[in-house]
């Protein structure tokens, strides 16, 4: 049965990196420290960086990284995460995920701008652009997922919109043991999330605290 | 050798309860959920609630609770934590910690109001009132601690002032697995604290995440 999943990165003080909107370093300078333990895993090295040497960590972080890529049948993301705003006037701009994005499934991009046709990419990813309510986009994505899960990929405002609307079954937050003191706030407007979900936590060898909300 | 210690409670979203300034429920309604796992420990039941039946949890939370009361030779707290503002005009007001406060050592209360004489209490606690710089009060407390530790008890603004000034050797934060969405922010202005301290974390049976910064 389809579940709706979100994975987020947070610092101890509840921030995720603020994207700076440039394609050289789109996620901002704090993204590296925030995601370092994930980037070190065998799965991320292979799936995101194309390193098929088998190198990378294999502990608790790797278990979450592997799960991240398992059983996702459709993805939803905000326009900024696709990179729509970077070249907003170029109808041929295909986002900043490269020629073969690491999704391998339909990706629904939420946008307020004019509709544009779907963009099929190598590796099974097709970007679709939707302007409707998040509930409607989710319903379409759930059909497309065909029994697999729908992941709300981000950014943080998109994730919180789905959480606030009560649409998310599984939230995983990887909390890096660092204090950023700045960025986009992960947890705003989510008071009482522990009342509708069961919370469990474990600490990885890297020091990353993995917190999971599940209903 | 004297170390300077702080213990704090936080929610997952980085809030501690906002005191509401009434003596009926001085710590505010979120304080209970935030500290529930600590209040359930054998040590807290005995030391704070006077329950000497031996009841209470005995796991990881209890280990931190027992450490909380060990080797503290002097305490520093803000005026609000003493309760100074509740009866600011009453020179005979002895704070809201009761006839036998759970400190058992000299307690230095930071205040901007007029000096007042020390207040000796039952159980070895004496409240001293100081208007000087936090470095000077810490120096005096360290002498009084006589080789034991100095604990900065709170509130949160006092704790952050000592942390920002680089005066704290050990910070322990007990993170309750709840999202408060409101309160006083624990982590503000502490960017990079992990660069001067070593961070370790463990998850208690209760779900509380114990994060320790140590230098």
From TrEMBL, chains A, B:
Domain Bacterial bifunctional deaminase-reductase C-terminal: 4-192
Gene3D superfamilies: Dihydrofolate Reductase, subunit A
A matching Pfam family: RibD_C
Coiled-coil segments: none
PANTHER family: BIFUNCTIONAL DEAMINASE-REDUCTASE DOMAIN PROTEIN, DIHYDROFOLATE REDUCTASE FAMILY PROTEIN (AFU_ORTHOLOGUE AFUA_8G06820)
Protein name: Dihydrofolate reductase family protein
Source organism: Microbacterium terregens
